[in-house]
Amino acid sequence: EYDFVVEDVSKVFVGATRVQALSDIDLKLKRGSFTCIVGPSGCGKSTLLRIIGELETATKGHVEINVPESRVPRSAFVFQEHGVFPWFTVLQNVAFGQQMAAVGKKEREQNARRWIAEVGLSGFENAYPHQLSGGMRQRIAIARAFATGSPVLLMDEPLGALDAQTRMLMQEQLLHLWEIEHKTVVLVTHAIEEALLLGDQIVVMSARPGRIKEIIDVPFGRP
Ligand code: ADP
Ligand code: ADP
């Protein structure tokens, strides 16, 4: 039932100074759920996301992962910016994420076209990212993450760099994509309205050291 069970996790970065980024984190991620992590800058949101995504290890505690390993990486990532390759077209960018999957070129391209259509970029397959708006570039990154076939989608402020109106459109679009394919999603944001709109579980964090202040379940909250 749970893809991830985070138990008593702490993270300390030791460099010029010692930074306790996370302290005693307990969190469960249900398969197919949409979790939003919200809190002030520096409270450890990205660090927690990176630990869930196996990009970082905990200093203390344990993360139980029940997502089967396959040819496809467990997690696909979407970051705030710089998530697309400028020298690739839209189609190449979206198809690229599937290199790991054991499918043929033709199938990869078909799948990429499908996700390009789902994010509303049909007609732009052969465009390069610099020819498109910021919102459209983020849609490329999101389409690619879905196209990978990874069962877990981890997003760090994916809409953070967008203007308010584009951001609202993209929130709708994220929900639409998640309804098509119920991946286990974790989205980091500093915007509580965004968390309330998107999440069925909202993790509210506080800083110094990064702790979970409360976890809000929104079972019927979605409009
Ligand atoms: P948030 O995503 O909530 O803004 P982060 O997880 O990025 O917070 O950072 C939490 C704390 O850990 C911050 O004080 C940050 O400076 C520190 N930190 C993050 N990554 C590193 C790192 N690689 N080395 C040292 N300190 C780090
Ligand atoms: P922004 O992120 O700048 O607010 P959007 O991603 O919401 O823009 O794009 C709004 C619409 O404007 C797109 O769906 C597209 O139809 C059109 N558009 C934006 N940039 C271009 C472009 N370079 N070429 C053609 N149409 C574009």
Q: Evaluate the radius of gyration.
A: 17 Å
Strand content: 25-35%
- The total count of helices amounts to 6
Secondary-structure-derived class: alpha/beta
Would you write up a description of this structure?
The chain has 223 residues and is α/β, with parallel strands linked by helices. Helices cover 30% and strands 29% of the residues. The chain is built from six helices and nine strands; from the N terminus they run βββαββαααβαβαββ. A hairpin with a 4-residue loop joins strand 8 (201-206) and strand 9 (211-217). The longest helix is centred in the C-terminal third of the chain and has 17 residues, at 164-180. The mean pLDDT is 91. The chain binds adenosine-5'-diphosphate (ADP) (2 copies). The site of one adenosine-5'-diphosphate has 10 residues, from helix 4 and helix 5. The site of one adenosine-5'-diphosphate has 13 residues, from strand 2 and helix 1. It comes from Microbacterium protaetiae.
